[in-house]
Amino acid sequence: MSDLPSCKINCDGAFSAPEGTGGGGGWGFVIQDLPGDVRGSGAGRLRHVASALQAEATACSAALQAAS
Hints:
By secondary structure, this protein is of the alpha+beta class. The protein has one helix and three strands.
């Protein structure tokens, strides 16, 4: 069993492709410890995003970078 503290990460991405634009969206995440206290969070805007999957991946990447 690891001696490292555990945490929970929730992340989400959003994607919108209005007609005639390159698409846009956003991302966000929150990091909580076992009692549920917030240990970190972040959010941002995405421009020229190609898909919902890309927005979700960006959110996960940002959360993992913040947690490490």
